[in-house]
UniProtKB/TrEMBL annotation:
<keyword id="KW-0472">Membrane</keyword>
<dbReference type="InterPro" id="IPR007016">
    <property type="entry name" value="O-antigen_ligase-rel_domated"/>
</dbReference>
<dbReference type="InterPro" id="IPR006007">
    <property type="entry name" value="Inorganic_carbon_transpt"/>
</dbReference>
<feature type="transmembrane region" description="Helical">
    <location>
        <begin position="117"/>
        <end position="135"/>
    </location>
</feature>
<feature type="transmembrane region" description="Helical">
    <location>
        <begin position="90"/>
        <end position="111"/>
    </location>
</feature>
<feature type="transmembrane region" description="Helical">
    <location>
        <begin position="247"/>
        <end position="265"/>
    </location>
</feature>
<dbReference type="GO" id="GO:0016020">
    <property type="term" value="C:membrane"/>
</dbReference>
<feature type="transmembrane region" description="Helical">
    <location>
        <begin position="64"/>
        <end position="83"/>
    </location>
</feature>
<keyword id="KW-1133">Transmembrane helix</keyword>
<feature type="domain" description="O-antigen ligase-related">
    <location>
        <begin position="231"/>
        <end position="381"/>
    </location>
</feature>
<dbReference type="InterPro" id="IPR051533">
    <property type="entry name" value="WaaL-like"/>
</dbReference>
<dbReference type="Pfam" id="PF04932">
    <property type="entry name" value="Wzy_C"/>
</dbReference>
<feature type="transmembrane region" description="Helical">
    <location>
        <begin position="200"/>
        <end position="218"/>
    </location>
</feature>
<feature type="transmembrane region" description="Helical">
    <location>
        <begin position="39"/>
        <end position="58"/>
    </location>
</feature>
<feature type="transmembrane region" description="Helical">
    <location>
        <begin position="406"/>
        <end position="424"/>
    </location>
</feature>
<feature type="transmembrane region" description="Helical">
    <location>
        <begin position="147"/>
        <end position="164"/>
    </location>
</feature>
<feature type="transmembrane region" description="Helical">
    <location>
        <begin position="277"/>
        <end position="295"/>
    </location>
</feature>
Length: 459
């Protein structure tokens, strides 16, 4: 069983042979002499980190068009870095499956019933994947890793503060986010700079995970206080979104982070805490949640709405959309309709129930299946298992090396699992503010790979 799992997740995958036979390997470092004579490219990774940090810091505050321009700039700069690179290329099993995912999306475009719309989505997906490739390359530097994580936390803090302010002073509700017949229909749901509570909850979750990690990685008192402040503000902000899927994602994130952090510090703990720390931690968390729900009638009503099916208007809306999407998948089972919301918007009206228009499938997994078929969904699930497996492997390795960067990987794994849980019921992940954060977290895991033997480029 362990052998099969190793094959599925590429646990012993070595990229050297594949790279030496690939076209990609041949262009890496093709103009490396140019880099030696270029003043700017001497700071190549630093400039790359600056471009990435612009997206991480400002994506909540600018339009998607501006984010698109920055992604194009990063893609162009990544090409310059690759052709002038002097180090071995970053490539592991995660990169391989991301590349395979991209190939399937390209094939899905070819067979799409709305090829032009699907090609537009394919271009957007390509930009996100290049963002991942560039970020995983830049994150090999511990200093630049800390810089980019600090950029993410700084932006998350501003977004969280504004979200909490909306709750304290009130804010106009931009849409009917609550069931108008429910007890909690008049409750305020904050959306900060993102314009949507569910989108805000997905955006803020990685900041919560990374701030928990920062509390343990940052050694001095003031940085620890800053990390704790970010954690508390963002947790309150996510709670105030009223996003049920966001609440579930937060609980899952906390559980995964606690389990992985326990394994990290377990050997340093006294025998008593090795036996009782997890029961005490989870018992406290469960008790706190129970007391919070018991003391808040609106929260009780909101939680119970998860289990009443179509009696809740939000649930009913999603169920109708899911039913239509399943019918779409039945008609395009293998390669789907092609990537992107433009392709979805053209095909979905042919299947939708009256009065239930939608811009997405309201589920990451259903969206993947309808865009790239069951083939694409299989690759996506394969990629998820590989990311988590690689993350746990790297946590163990960095723990043995006494390298605190392993705690950042713990945060990345916890946030990824949390976002996937939220993705079961929503597709806010496909918005650029969240999508870039998702690929940043994946890159944080993928970047830690080091081959057993160095590759001499063009040797």
């Amino acid at each position: 069983m362990k052998f099969i799992w190793g094959l599925i997740t590429f646990s012993s995958f070595s990229p050297e042979i594949w790279l030496k036979a690939s076209f990609y390997y041949r262009i890496v470092g093709l103009f490396r002499n140019w880099r030696q004579s270029s003043f700017l490219l001497r700071w190549g990774k630093t400039i790359g980190a600056l471009l990435i940090s612009l997206i991480l810091m400002f994506s909540p505050f600018v339009t998607t068009g501006v984010i698109g321009i920055w992604l194009i700039s990063i893609a162009m700069y990544w090409i310059i870095l690759i052709v002038s690179e002097r180090e071995q290329p970053v490539f592991n099993s995660i990169h391989l499956l991301v590349f395979l995912y991209w190939v399937i999306s390209a094939i899905a475009v070819i067979f799409s019933p709305v090829r032009d719309a699907a090609f537009s989505g394919f271009i957007k997906l390509t930009l996100y994947l290049i963002f991942f490739a560039c970020t995983s390359h830049i994150l090999r530097s511990p200093i630049l890793t800390n810089w980019l994580i600090l950029s993410t936390l700084g932006s998350g803090l501003l977004v969280g503060i504004y979200g909490v302010r909306q709750r304290l002073f009130g804010v106009e509700q931009l849409a009917t986010w609550n069931d108008p017949t429910a007890y909690f229909s008049n409750s305020i749901r904050v959306y900060s700079y993102l314009g949507n509570p569910n989108l805000l909850s997905a955006y803020i979750l990685p900041s919560i995970a990374l701030s928990m990690a920062a509390f343990f990685v940052w050694q001095k008192t003031l940085p620890k206080l800053l990390a704790l402040t970010i954690l508390l503000i963002n947790t309150f902000c996510l709670y105030f979104t009223g996003s049920r899927s966001g609440w579930i994602a937060l609980i899952i994130c906390l559980v995964i982070f606690s389990l992985l952090l326990f394994t990290w510090f377990k050997d340093e703990l006294p025998l008593f805490w090795r036996q009782w720390l997890l029961p005490i931690t989870f018992g406290t968390l469960i008790s706190f949640i129970f007391v919070l729900i018991a003391s808040n009638d609106i929260l009780q009503s909101r939680i119970m709405s998860i289990f009443i099916g179509r009696a809740d208007s939000s649930n009913n809306f999603r169920i109708n959309v899911w039913t239509s999407v399943v019918n779409m998948i039945k008609d395009y089972p293998f390669l789907g309709i092609g990537p992107g919301n433009d392709a979805f918007s053209k095909i979905y009206p042919l299947y939708m129930s009256p009065k239930y228009s939608a811009l997405s499938a309201y589920s990451v997994f259903l969206e993947t299946a309808v865009e790239m078929g069951l083939v694409g969904l299989s690759i996506f699930i394969w990629l998820i298992f590989t990311i988590i497996n690689q993350g746990i492997q790297k946590i163990n390795k960095l723990k043995n090396d006494k390298n605190s960067h392993g705690i950042w990987i713990i945060a990345a794994v916890a946030a990824i699992v949390g976002l996937l849980m939220q993705g079961l019921f929503d597709t806010v992940w496909y918005r650029p503010q969240v999508n870039t954060l998702w690929w940043f977290l994946v890159a944080l895991i993928a970047s830690q790979h080091k081959s057993k033997e160095k590759i001499n480029i063009h040797s």
